[in-house]
Design brief:
Length: about 260
């Protein structure tokens, strides 16, 4: 793991006047190993794991929302700069679509699962008992907060390295047909096949979460969550493709009709 000193003033301002977060040093060390980055300021990483529901039950702590806000901006800049250099012939619209695909909530939640972020997120009792550790919206927010904390702790170079480690595999396939479109292509050549999506929503108006289930050939397949119906459908379609490919092997882009 590597580390470089970031902006001391920003670090102290972010963690000042807070009691110690109850995430053990060993759990933080394991997370840092999965991120391949060692924080100089453990408290910053711990704050990135503090969901607002936990802070509401534990006075004196800041939630990860400010770090999430910062991490969203850092992530967008890292991906945009990469696309600007790696795709010199792409126009603004193409780059925007690719960026949206790799920084959406569903993609961020997948990144969080890769580093097992859910196991160390601090949640209120209600969120914890209702499955918050696996909820895509919570995981996505925490992942952005970790990116923001990395930037404050180690500067832009370290933030780029941590982000690129998780984002680069997704950039390889970005811009191709999205998972939902591929499912429709899969069933298009066979009249007896069908695909549809069942959508449910939960949460208050200002913070809704959507859940989607794919019904493929009359059977439940993948499911997913998102902050919009579209994100939830894409997450469910992505999970459906994982199930399909686990069963029959990888289906190359554009060959859905052959395997349908």
């Amino acid at each position: 793991m590597t580390n470089s000193v970031g902006a001391p003033g920003a670090i102290s301002a972010a963690v000042a006047h807070q009691p110690r977060h109850p995430v053990s040093d060993s759990d933080l060390a394991k997370l840092m190993q999965r991120l391949d980055y060692e924080f100089a300021e453990f408290a910053l990483l711990a704050q990135a794991l503090a969901h607002r529901s936990w802070c509401a039950e534990n006075a004196g702590y800041r939630s990860n929302e400010r770090l999430e806000f910062l991490g969203d901006a850092v992530l967008g800049l890292v991906v945009t700069e990469y696309l600007h250099g790696a795709a010199p012939n792409a126009d603004e619209g193409q780059m925007s679509r690719i960026r949206a695909e790799v920084v959406c909530s569903a993609a961020l939640a997948d990144m969080a699962r890769e580093v097992d972020l859910g196991s160390v997120i601090l949640l209120g009792k209600g969120e914890a008992t209702s499955g918050g550790r696996t909820r895509s919206s919570i995981l996505a927010d925490a992942m952005e907060a970790v990116f923001g904390a990395t930037y404050l702790d180690g500067g832009m170079d370290n933030a780029v390295r941590v982000i690129r480690k998780l984002v680069d595999p997704r950039l390889e396939n970005a811009g191709m047909a999205d998972p939902k479109s591929r499912l429709h292509m899969l069933v298009a050549s066979a009249p007896e096949r069908s695909v549809s999506f069942q959508i449910q929503e939960s949460g208050p108006e200002h913070d809704k979460t959507y859940s989607a289930v794919v019904i493929l050939d009359g059977e439940r397949a993948g499911q997913g969550e998102g902050r919009s119906k579209k994100e939830a459908e894409q997450a469910a379609a992505r999970e459906t493709w994982r199930l399909i490919e686990a069963d029959i092997g990888a289906v190359p882009q554009g060959e859905e009709r052959i395997h349908g």
